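Before relying on records like the one below, remember that each one covers exactly one chain. Contacts with other chains, cofactors or solvent are not represented anywhere in the record.
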Amino acid sequence: MEITWLGHSCFRIKGREATLITDPYDGSIGYSLGKPRADIVTSSHPHPGHSFVAGVGGAPRVVQCPGEYEIASVFITGIATFHDAERGKRQGKNTVYLIEMEEMTVCHLGDLGHALSSEQMEEMSGVEVLLVPVGGLSTIDAAAAAEMVRLLQPRIVIPMHFKTDVVPFKLEPVESFLKEMGLKGATPQPKLYITRTGLPDETQVVVLDYKG
């Protein structure tokens, strides 16, 4: 499996049989998406910064709500959550996606804005790769993200939705999350290549460099 961060909450996840893109964005985010091709697109909520399907090339199947899906040998489970800590009263709903491919499960938390319930935690147990928002403001912040990592215990954690030079919003930088995780820093990697047999024994934080 190859994982590339395209900026904000958008990742390209490539397997042997399919390519999936999460939360494609429009120009308001500050990043440049280009026109990446994909077989599948997931959208966590209907905001232009997370649901710009027109920015994806090819003829992808679009998943944008809770449920169970099987597309091109990829199994996807959408879990209903909220964009805030008030059961969606301020910012609406959010869908967390469990993406099963290459004998691994990737969890994309979208714009999750609250702590998970015990039922949700159980549904997400066994996740190998966690894509977690860490910037706060409209999602969980660095401290809440670190606590979620400790509870879910994934093998690999990739932070997303944080402040960079191009983002116009007042998000926290990724360094805040790294500090909460007890790390002094991390060298961004251009891509992450992983296999089931190559997963680390203990949780590892991987910061990816933006590639538009």
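Residues 2-205 form a domain with the Metallo-beta-lactamase; Chain A fold (CATH 3.60.15.10).
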